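Help!! Second protein's tokens look totally different from the first
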Amino acid sequence: MTAATDATLFPQVPGGSAYPAPPSGPDEVLDGLDPEQREVATALHGPVCVLAGAGTGKTRAITHRIAYGVRAGILQPSSVLAVTFTARAAGEMRGRLRQLGATGVQARTFHSAALRQLQFFWPRAVGGELPRLLDRKGPLVAEAAARCRIRLDRNELRDVTGEVEWSKVTQTVPADYPAAVAKAGREAPRDPAEIGQIYAAYEQLKRDRGTIDFEDVLLLTVGVLQDRHDIAEQVRAQYQHFVVDEYQDVSPLQQRLLELWLGDRDSLCVVGDASQTIYSFTGATPDHLLDFRHRHPHATVVKLVRDYRSTPQVVHLANGLLSRARGRAAEHRLELVSQREPDTEPVFTEYADEPAEAEGTARRIRDLIAAGVPASGIAVLFRINAQSEVYEQALADAGVPYQLRGAERFFERPEVREAGVKLRGAARFGGNDTLLDGAAGLPSEVRAVLSDMGWTDRPPAGSGAVRDRWESLAALVRLAEDFARARPTATLADLVTELDERAAAQHAPTVEGVTLASLHAAKGLEWDAVFLVGLTEGMLPIHHARTDEQIEEERRLLYVGITRARRHLALSWSLARSPGGRPSRSASRFLDGLRSGSGGSRYRAAPGGATGGVERGSAVAAPGRSRRTHRSPARCRVCNRTLTDPGEMKLMRCEDCPSELDEALYERLRDWRSGQAAATRQPAYCVFTDKTLMAIAEVVPGSAEELAVIPGVGRRKLDRFGADVLAICAGEEPGAGAAEGRGEGAENSSEK
């Protein structure tokens, strides 16, 4: 089932609804972007690296970048290939691009893009038809193990299959598997020599039966592009510009494929966050992201740190967790700055046992739903799937509907298939379908068709199969309503086409129910309320995480969980597994210093905030030229909100925040400015603007250093006017001591 998320194919603009129509021109595409997102959108040439923290609008930034390039005539839609890691993310990207008027851009997963190329070029490169693609490799791995006289239970089969996948994405052949595992410090689920044998037998079985698996798609595409330069050049002639989302998750094999697509060009934009690397067990590594500037010295690097998803309380907790991280990824962490209004503090709860934890969680969820939070806006996240059962039972007992992420796919449900057939028939027969009698408008037509299947305005009481069926149909109704808002002239046939595209991409609509999911499955999603449960030593970090890097990946997994929450966040653990059991468990070490009463010092935000902005040019500045670096986001010195309005940035506070203006000082500064303007025969605002004078009169700087940091002062004006301004602030008359003060100001300025 699919977890709830705000990321739909009908994207919301800040403070408004979905686009009723594509933007009228390229400049309108940039409307609503913050300064850093705008930098991403307008950086269309050369390599670009976007370091994007959780909730900072990275998908918005890169889709607007593509759309701006297309609408400005700089990028040809058919020459752009955007790749990501899930079919759902690719579907979302295509939907956003369509709404922005950038149709024709290819947005696919690595595997989907490679498969299309392989299918097209296989007859020419190899001959004949492409071998059949395996749906699942588990049964064949089990057969390979049996041939090696090795018996695998259900869990071992899953783990060994994972090892085969890891070997292939790291380009490790069966004979080299034992050595590769040892070198990587990887803990094999069985004797590495046995796994190597199973891996070799599995590959032989595939060859015997003329089949390939998911990883072979990438391997074979890489092989074709490496061996056939004519084919590689044809692909490069087709695709001129590349965008890669979630770049911290690329495997060595995917990186090699990307390099072959690029050739010797550098029209590449990558987006990622090393602090969200949680799939290293599959071969993913953040090294490609962290080394991007070394491979592309002239790259533009943009950092997105304005968090639009989570409240300041949630962001503070996430920043605090990462402040204790170690290792290379931690050195490049982004300190987020929340753009939302403050809300409730995260809640830490200790329970006596697991059933008590589950029951307490269910009670709190029921209270949230009663307070108006939709069930689809709530998630319970755990480390491993085996933890879900007790929460399923507790939610059922509390009468709360839920859905398991990773269970049956939405578009494969019988009622959804049946609804698709009925909607397709109604679209075909149009006004001749009696079901549509009296229906006016697309949503009304969909309700009429689905009413024939049992959909009603009100959900049935209780849970179970009847409620599940109703939820599926209700999700289709909501999707039709969203679709009609985004495209007012859409017909039933247009909706059927949309459903077909979503089914192909497995981009399901929201189902009304609390989501139960593992932390890994929650990546890329978000909810109003998130419950992180089972946070004990041995579970998070998991007991088999032993090396420093493995421990740090577990910390990043918790970070991903925390940053899924928009408003409400609860973290809990239990001391025993069952009622009456020995309370031998302890809270996760990752919570130390984050909750009151825990060990270690509490996290405090770094002075000056996060290091967002943009860097251009070479990693090593050319002689005589300094590298251009944008400042961190300005923040209000009263409420700490990030400022984007130029006037507010000069005041260093929000317009409506309390002012500590010294009005008498402000008037003296205005009088002095008038004299300076008359003496130099220039407008008064060329000396200092009113906003800058107001900021000076509010701060009342006592030194050149304090004056220099006020926006609108700058080095040149500090050298020229600093001594006079400081004298006025000190209650003295500018003049005799001005020359001495001017020299001091210049000296201090040069030090800066």
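Here's the second one for comparison:
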Amino acid sequence: MTEVNSPPRVGRWTRIVTARPRLSLLAALVLTVLAVLAGSGVADRLGAGGWEDPAAESTYATKALEREFPASQPNLLLLVDAGGTSVDDPAVAAEANRLTARLTAEPGVTGVGSYWSAKSPALRAEDGREALIAARITGDEKQMGETLDRIAPSLRGTHGPVEVEIGGVVAVRHEMQTIIQEDLTRAEMIALPITLLLLVMVFGSAIAALLPLGIGIVAILGTNAVLRGLTEFTDVSVFAMNLTTALGLGLAIDYALFIVRRFREELATDADPLTAVATTLRTAGRTVLFSALTVAVSLAAMLLFPQYFLRSFAYAGMAVVLLAAAAALILLPAALVLLGHRVNSLDLRRLFRRGRPSSTDPGTGWARTANLVMRRAPFFALGTTAVLVLLGLPFLGVKFGTADDRQLPASAESHVVQQHLRDGFPGSPGGGLEVLAEGKATPAQYAAYKERIATLPGVQRVDGPLVKADSAYFTVQPRGEAVDDEAQHLVGELRATKAPFDTKVTGTAAVLVDSKHAIGDRLPWAAAFIAAVTLLLVFLLTGSILIPIQAVLLNALSLTAMFGAVVWVFQDGHLSSLLGFTSPGSIETTLPVLMFCVAFGLSMDYGVFLLSRIKEEYDRTGDHEEAVRHGLQRTGGLITAAAVILAVVMVAIGTSRVTNTKMLGLGIALAVLMDAMIIRSLLVPAVMRLTGRATWWAPKALQRFHERFGLSEGEVNPPRGAGLYRYAAPPRGATSHDGPADDNGDGMADASGSLRTIRRTSGGT
């Protein structure tokens, strides 16, 4: 059989992105400046809520009560401290009434009430030295924040005989939003210089190190502009900005790291810069594109959930992933063509070597690791699996709750106020359940219904009804904590209680019940979506049936340590003093979903890097074990470096004073490191050694499907009989990029070009 071995051609995509490299970079600079302008002020337009299901019964009832009975849904609380005297002291009462009148006169404030006007025991501390003034600030989150900023300075502080502190939901969310913005700026200041230092250590060259950082900054700024545009049409959570920074730096650096490393490898073979870029795009470029798709798919699954908190992360994540990939595949090639061999300039590591010769190939150590793991494959497969399962066991005791003031630092004013309410006020004010009654009813019917719900287990007290036209509401105070199991059970009991009118239940526990139901209802669909698309994408990459299944299962296994640590640390409170947070004794319901989607996507990112190189070598040689060894040798250091850099970014995010952000950052950092150092380095080689050549099997029908639509990083001619297809053997000493190019040269415009080349060369099957 005649063998074809022509040098790689410069393909269509390479010609497009390198035709006018200076013009391309100038256009990118202009677009980046426009993105800065478009994204300015985005943080001020983001919300701090979004955990509730907008279609839930509790959401409907809350909005109806806000509209008809604003005093029933106070979101602003003034904690009035009388010092050493009683709140019933005439001077204290007079000052409190003046504050109440001042608050009533403020625009945008309604439903003002106080202990002194209502004489409700629930608004007075048990020691008699503190009491509450409650009100509702109207408008959307931005308007409520502006109103709070306007009125807070005149209300906070000393007023005659009393001291006033401000709390309530609107104060908690506004303070949370402010702290997140401050913490994000600090995280960026921490992450950027450390990341640059690590990149210099990885590349040696300061020039090469700056390229990934530049791609990350472009992705972050572009995503901020996207989020700013989305706020015109939908709610977006302020927490999404943390993911933008983390993934913008992390993934952009991953992609640029992969491309720059391959480009430098090609230059080392005496290829000219344009040919090196063409080969890089044909190989590493395809992997980056595939990796971006797999990460985007995992993040897109959050669009299936109704909470805008989760949907916001899908918006931000998908935008930053696609922008990072686009920048890496469009801007980076242009920069590399211009730099050429100067990409290796300014080797700062020489300052530390002091004239000593550079070390031997770092891939040698990874080759030894691969050989050791494959020789002891059963031990490593069973041992690492057992360790990961053991680390995940604490998650079996997870308790789900809602995000509240305990997300904030203990010194935050709104946290202090809410803690005073929990510790010193009867029945946890603000933690009760409200029952909205709609429809005409007589006083006797209201009284009978009140008596009926008062006898339910777990009810401490029932207040009301307050009637307005054909609507009324009751306040039900549960025994114990506002969102414990008893309170959640009471929600179901109230909803099941018959009444001569329509009833809807809301309150903190009801919102939690509805949120858990919404997530549980959609979680199987989201998991199925991620699994199905991931299986398809990995099959298109490898042509194997077994490898996609292994990828999904091993990726899921890599997350066990993260989930176990989240429960052990953040729910159970271990290390809380060291990490500086207050444990609420539960995990916010949406956080595990978010962390799974993000961590699974990042695991697939590293998985694609490793599998693509293994597949490339297997196609070239047909030697399964050699392919695994070579794949780990060529990517082990790269994946570890990328994981460490991403972990640094996530740990910087984890320094946040907001507990959910801290949990997200530290949890993802742990998952990334476990995936790179345990799954990719130990478990994947061990499992692939155990499955042997069967790893690459696929039914003939799927073989034909992969021939037509599949994607291969390498465009080479493996030995006859190797893998899924018949191939012509390469000449002795052929490198991974030897062999004919596809129809488009670099393959970026036609994913199936490499397979057509194989069929042209070998006759196919």
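Reply: Different proteins will give different token patterns, so don't panic. The chain is about 60% helix and 10% strand.
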